[in-house]
UniProtKB/TrEMBL annotation:
Gene3D superfamilies: 1.10.1740.10, Winged helix-like DNA-binding domain superfamily/Winged helix DNA-binding domain
UniProt name for this protein: Sigma-70 family RNA polymerase sigma factor
PANTHER family hit by this protein: ECF RNA POLYMERASE SIGMA FACTOR SIGI-RELATED, SIGMA 19 FACTOR
Pfam families, alphabetized: Sigma70_r2, Sigma70_r4_2
Source organism: Paenibacillus septentrionalis
Secretion signal span: none
UniProt-listed SUPFAM superfamilies: NTF2-like (SSF54427), Sigma2 domain of RNA polymerase sigma factors (SSF88946), Sigma3 and sigma4 domains of RNA polymerase sigma factors (SSF88659)
Self-association state and partner proteins as the record states: Interacts transiently with the RNA polymerase catalytic core formed by RpoA, RpoB, RpoC and RpoZ (2 alpha, 1 beta, 1 beta' and 1 omega subunit) to form the RNA polymerase holoenzyme that can initiate transcription.
Domain of life: Bacteria
Domain called RNA polymerase sigma-70 region: residue spans: 10-75
Length: 288
């Protein structure tokens, strides 16, 4: 077996792990694959005998590549939402079943949406420490900061991802239970359960039309949404209260904001316009 073949065999044992790291950071299958491929190219160009811990070396390299890619995005002022969604749908057609399972197990759509709002260094520090449990002394050289500064960056990212400040002001029980029941009924197409979650005079405002479309009344709204909810739709904190985001493969499609009174949903605001989405504060909702 040649040295190059041996090296390729070793690299393949780490490929899935590297892809998971890259996808968590980048939120794009194609970009994650590019990062993994670039990591292989860098490995193939060096004297492997100088590497003491090949797994750690590979994680460090793929993280630096992802950081460069994230900074490049920022310098281009990011892609538009439409371009991201198009890339997502193309990725979906190309991904193989094994990769699909890997993504489903390791990445939450809400997490990817919130991570996308972080600065590159915040995103890298949070993912490497909170998700993959790397020590700050190993993360600091990757983002070019001191260990103490890296710790602060990760802490700031953690607060944004978890929505700690917003969560304390959330009208927890009524809001959570009403929205949770609404989403479950919408996914199941259960008309009666939808009616039960809604105030009879509920109003839905939808900005997907050139002028905001309005649906009034529980019956009309239940007919509109029963069985039609995006499969990717899930609970999240939206501007500090429990709402719903639809984010196929972590690419934000729309959010739903709710007003709840006496356990019934009285108002729903569907936001999908890119400018409005960009101004919406999102955070991951803690598991029940």
């Amino acid at each position: 077996m040649s040295d190059q073949v041996w090296l390729a065999t070793i690299f393949e044992t780490y490929r899935k792990q590297l892809f998971t790291v890259a996808y968590r950071m980048l939120g794009s299958i194609s970009e994650a694959e590019d990062a993994v491929q670039e990591t292989w190219l860098r490995l193939s160009r060096i004297d492997v005998s100088t590497i003491q811990n090949i797994g750690g070396w590979l994680t460090t390299v793929v993280s630096r590549i992802c950081l460069d890619m994230l900074r490049s995005r920022k310098s281009r002022k990011e892609e538009t939402l439409e371009a991201q969604l198009s890339d997502t749908l193309t990725d979906h057609q190309q991904v193989d079943p094994e990769q699909e399972a890997l993504i489903a197990d390791s990445v939450g759509a809400a997490m990817l949406v919130v991570l996308a709002q972080l600065k590159p260094a915040e995103r890298i520090a949070f993912v490497l420490h909170d998700v993959f449990h790397l020590p700050f002394q190993e993360i600091a050289p990757i983002i070019g900061k001191s260990e103490d500064a890296t710790r602060q960056i990760a802490s700031r990212a953690r607060r944004r991802v978890r929505g700690e400040k917003a969560a304390r002001t959330t009208n927890a029980d009524d809001q959570h239970e009403a929205v949770k029941a609404f989403l479950a009924a919408a996914h199941a197409g259960d008309f009666d359960r939808l009616i039960a979650a809604l105030d009879p005079e509920v109003v839905l405002r939808d900005d997907r039309e050139s002028e905001a479309a309005i649906t009034r009344g529980a019956v009309a709204l239940a007919k509109k949404v029963a069985g039609r909810a995006q499969k990717s739709a899930q609970l999240a904190l939206v501007d500090g209260t429990v709402g719903i985001i639809a984010a196929p493969r972590g690419k934000l499609l729309y959010v739903l904001k709710f007003n709840v009174t006496s356990g019934k949903i009285t108002e729903i605001d569907l936001i999908s316009h890119p400018e409005r989405l960009a101004k919406t504060e999102l955070a991951v909702l803690a598991a029940d």
